[in-house]
Amino acid sequence: MDTPEGKLDILDNISLEVEYQEAVVIKGASGSGKTTLLGLMAGLDQASSGDIKLLGHDLMHKSEEQRAAIRAGQVGFVFQSFHLVQGATALQNVMLPLELSGIENAGQLAQTSLQQVGLASRADTLVEHLSGGEQQRVAIARAYATEPSVLFADEPTGNLDASTGRQIADLMFELRDQSGTTLVLVTHEAELLERGDRQILIESGKLVTS
Amino acid sequence: MKVKRATIHAYWLMFIASVITVGIVTSSQLISDRISLLLDRQASELLAADLVIESSNDFSHEYREQALREGLQVSHSISLRSAIFVDDTPRLIELKAIDANYPLRGKLETALEITGTRQVTTEVPSAGEVWIDSKLAGLVGSQIQLGEKFLSAQRLLTYEPDRGGAIFNLAPRVLMNVEDLSDTGLIVAGSRAEYRLMFAGATDDLVRFKIWLSTNAKPGEEIQDLENARPEMRRALERTRQFFALAIVLTLVIAMAALAITARYTANQEAPKVAMLRAFGISQANLLKYYLRQLGTLWIMATLAGIVLGWGSQFPLQWALDGWFGKALPQVYSLRPYLTAALVGLLALAGFSLPYLVNVTATPPMQVLRTVVNQRSWWRGLLISGSAIVAVFAVLMLLMQSSILAVVTLALVLACALVLPLLLGWMVRALLYSSSRRFWLRQYLLSRLRATSRGAIYVMSGFSLVLISILLIAVVKDELIGEWEAQLPDNIPNYFLINIRTEDVGGIEAFLRQRGIEASTPYALVRARMAKINDVDVDKINFTDPRASHSVTHTFNVTYADEVPDQNLIVAGEWLSNSNDPAQVSVEQGLAERLQLEIGDTLTMMVGSQRFESRVSSIRSVAWENFKPNFFLITNTELIESFPQTWLLSALVTDSNRADLKQLLQRYPSVTLLDISEMMARVRGIVEKASVALQFFFVFALVSAVIVLLAAIQTGRHEREVESSLLRALSANTGQLYRVHILEYTLMGALIGFFSAAFASIAGWAISEFFFDIEFQLSARVWIYSLASGTVILSLAGTMVSRRVYNVSPMKVLRS
Predict the structure, then answer these.
(1) Is B525's pLDDT higher than 80?
(2) Do both B406 and B427 map to the same domain?
(3) Cβ contact (<8 Å) for A160 and B370?
(4) pLDDT tens digits for range A126-168
(5) Residue percentage of chain A with pLDDT more than 70
(6) Best of B375, B428, B438, B439 to mutate (most A CBs within 10 Å, chain A)
(7) Cα dihedral B140, B142, B144, B149 sign
């Protein structure tokens, strides 16, 4: 990364390959570079050097516009802070990525997705009126609605209490098992770590275990 | 010093909004004081002084001595009627003897011959000489006998500042030096003379002296200042001041809207910090103390910066206005504008930000761990709105002269502040329900506006309030002043022909008609004094209005008419001809208010030793500033037509007709010709200057509006960036991002424009109807400007913001 103080290496000499339908959990201390790695893998950010491929597409030297086109309909996200569109209903939030990708029957697919996360009855509720756990369920429904090939999740239970966090973790892995979606998950939670097919530890921008 | 720097850093938006608020008040107070002082001075020129005391007897020396002790300038004059011989024919004149200080305000103008150039002079006639009215032009250069003394007629007197005082009673003026008066022998015991003692000086000295004079004046001595001297001037000044007050308040409303928006934003920004501090066990009370100290520091710094800004910003205006006013704006040496500004700053800051900060100190400590939706509570809502209302009202009361105007303005601001979010919210919901099932793009846009966390409705309401205020200033400036100016049409008469004998009326009308000179209907003038109201002697009535006693001792020029005169409007009762009662009177609205007259009251008037009674059958509003013959009292023809009377008519005399006037005066020597174009130009000048001054406030309002816009953009920037980043992560392309931002701002602008035009039209109507007594016309321009400016400004601002926002990396959503 270029900074006013000069070049800053956040991730250094990392080589990581995630298999199709694999669930990889990334752990590491705060500031170790976990989120940066997730962002680079998902094509949200651009690495200064190296090679990154997502679903067979080379992400290097691609503009944000081109990377967005690669992500469209194939990549889902779940964030720690949910990041739902306030002022919109649960259903509308799930419809958003479908419509952005130009999918026609967005409403129907979104409704099905909400049903899968157990929120069909709250489809028309404004998201700000939902509890934290419910909001994260909406976010998961949104992520799975496009039937993505890969789902990236950044501390998905970080903003929830232990019990709700457990439910959300169950739901994510349950859906992943059903859909066969590849999962890349950043977390601190011991319970989530154990549920991955593989754990990756990052320390000071370096891959320690894989 | 570290603490102060930290304060600015944390609250920089609030700081800027506070600086602007204090700056606007400082600047507007300074400027409006200076303009008022200049207007007063210009109007004072029509009194030839700031304060005048008048009597039929000479004054005690005490008055002059007290005035000099107070640091005032003093001048005195004695006016009396006398006669001079012109071609062996005695001719009635108005003789006025003046001292070297005359006039204290304004200047005399003279010419050497009737067609000669008028010259402004600071001189007065020297001992042994007189200056004479242009009607006596033939006597220039000759000796005139005044009583026992011969004086040399040196110049023609073409303008005399205080001449208009009793315009219907004027015989030709002869101006002489007071030193010669005793030698003429004209003043003897029992002479009917009018003594005037004139004073001028600094406002504070004048106020003190006026209080002293009011308590020491003897019966029969009448004090005149601008407030009671001239109805047309008073109207002009009152309106100008009201316009100023309104413009200042509207400008301030904009600044306060910026403060409200920024206070809300700052409080939201503080929430994580509060949650952290509370998690560490800091009590709410201690947090409140901490924020009070922060606010106190911010207020002190903003006040200092605002005062410097306000003080500095008066200079560009002074530079701009000097040319228009023809002279420099006088300086105001008073701490009042600065203290007022500091107090307004404190009230606005406390009223708008304190409740938010009280609210934010209740942020749950759990917030440090996860997002906790703060429970809405009715008392917090009440605290926020109640405190803002109290602050706005206190500021309005502090700045506005009229408490009614303050209450109505508050009501309008409240109506806007409360109703606008409701209406906008309702409109957004209605649009949402009427929208398609598809979410992207229309419903998404509307959801963004509806989201309470983004506060878009409040930002829109704030911006609407700003636009409403700007539109209102524009309405006031264009519609109301335009309407007011329209009452002064270009072809209004510039001469009054007075002292016309009944037998000459027909001849003079024919004379004017033959020469193509436009003239008004002739009006009879019967000089009458008011003796009784409802059979009670007027000197035994205790009037609440101090101007009433002046009115009842005044000699009225009562006229009679069958039709309602032009630009007179019956506001109560019915016009004379609508009833068979032969003894009715129509009373001017202001006089009726001063004397507390109502329909059905009986007035007993004395004409010399004769008397007549009449019943008040209507009350009229009169456009005094139209310079047409206007009357306080109009009766039925049959009631007073038999009394001694003279006639008056007004005429529009063009340059090519001026020579005809000489002929007219030769043919009808009793007629006095009064040139009112000078006075008219002065009143028109006040209106024009008021308009220029309002333009200045308009600029101020625009500058404040830009700050509101910046504050609004700043307020939502973080949310927008995160949302854009989210959309990016959800694979939205640049075009989609661009469209959503531009369309959101365009939609906001259109909604703001629509509601602003509607509110501005209603408020404009209310203000013109209830305060300026002007017929309001719904302006299509207001709607066009409002919709266009709302949409264009917001879209442009949106474009600027979007350029940053759509370049935001989608990584932001991971890191936020």
Answers:
(1) yes
(2) yes
(3) yes
(4) 888 899 889 999 999 999 998 899 999 988 988 778 888 888 8
(5) 94
(6) B439
(7) positive
How many CB atoms sit inside 10 A of residue B800's CB?
Answer: 12
Whether residue B451 and residue A87 make contact (CB cut-off 8 A), yes or no, is yes
Using the Cβ of A35 and the Cβ atoms of chain B, whether some distance falls under 8 Å is answered with yes
Question: Distance, in angstroms, between A208 CA and closest chain B CA?
Answer: 23
Show which of B229, B255, B287 is a domain's final residue. B229
B222-274, pLDDT tens digit by residue? 787 766 555 555 565 566 666 666 777 777 777 787 788 778 777 877 887 78
Q: Is the pLDDT of residue B40 over 50?
A: yes
Contacts of B736 in chain A (CB under 8 A): 100
DSSP label at B558?
A: E
Q: Is the pLDDT of residue B703 over 70?
A: no
Instruction: Tell me the nearest-neighbour CA distance from B747 into chain A, angstroms.
Output: 16
B403 burial (CB, 10 Å; 0-12 / 13-18 / 19+) is: exposed
Best probe of the B interface among A55, A92, A94, by most B CBs < 10 A, is A92
Residue B611 has pLDDT above 80, yes or no: yes
How far is the CA of A21 from the CAs of A27, A150, B192, B315, B570, in angstroms? Answer: 19, 8, 117, 73, 90
Closest chain A residue to B444, measured at CA: A88
Cα separation of A108 and A114, whole Å?
Answer: 10
Q: Cβ of B814 and A38 within 8 Å?
A: yes
Looking at per-residue confidence, does B84 or B201 come out higher?
Answer: B201
pLDDT digits (tens, 9 = 90+) for B624-665: 766 678 888 999 988 888 888 888 888 888 877 777 877 887
Q: How does pLDDT run across B351-398, given as a tens digit for each residue?
A: 888 888 888 887 776 665 555 555 556 777 777 778 888 888 888 888
Whole-angstrom CA distances from A110 to A133, A140, A142, B711 are 18, 11, 7, 37
Residue A45 and residue B810: Cβ atoms within 8 Å? yes
Q: Are residues B398 and B521 in the same domain?
A: no
A160–B contact, CB cutoff 8 A: yes
B708 shares its domain with B799: yes
Q: Are A100 and B732 inside 8 Å of each other by CB?
A: yes
B162 and B146 fall within a common domain: yes
Q: How far is B451 from chain A (nearest CA, A)?
A: 4
What's residue B165's pLDDT? 41
Residue ending a domain, choose from B192, B207, B229: B229
Question: Which residues of chain B have a CB within 8 Å of the CB of A36?
Answer: 811
- For chain A, the structural domain boundaries read 2-85+146-209
Cα dihedral B262/B266/B267/B272 (nearest 10): 160
Instruction: Select the residue from B370, B432, B730 to test the A interface by mutation, using most A Cβ atoms within 10 A.
Output: B730
Average pLDDT over chain B reads: 78
Residues B732 and B651 in one domain: no
Q: In chain B, how many domains are there?
A: 3
Q: What per-residue confidence (pLDDT) applies to B369?
A: 53
pLDDT at residue A4, rounded to an integer: 53
Q: Look up the domain containing B565 and give its range.
A: 495-675
End-to-end CA distance of chain A: 24
Q: Are residues B272 and B338 in the same domain?
A: yes
The structural architecture, per CATH, of the domain A2-85+146-209 is: 3-Layer(aba) Sandwich (3.40)
> Minimal CA–CA distance to B484: which of B245, B778, B782, B768?
B768
- Chain B residue numbers with beta carbons less than 8 Å from the beta carbon of A77 are 729-730, 813
Distance CA(B810)–CA(B725), nearest Å, equals 4
Question: Are B127 and B62 part of one and the same domain?
Answer: yes
Contact B728 A45 (CB under 8 A): no
**Confidence check on the interface: ipTM exceeds 0.90, yes or no:** no
Residue B727: closest CA among chain A residues belongs to which residue? A97
Residue A28 pairs with which residues in a beta bridge? A202
CB contact under 8 A, A96 and B451: no
CB neighbours of residue A11 within 10 Å: 21
CB of B321 within 8 A of CB of B329?
yes
Q: Are residues B294 and B322 in the same domain?
A: yes
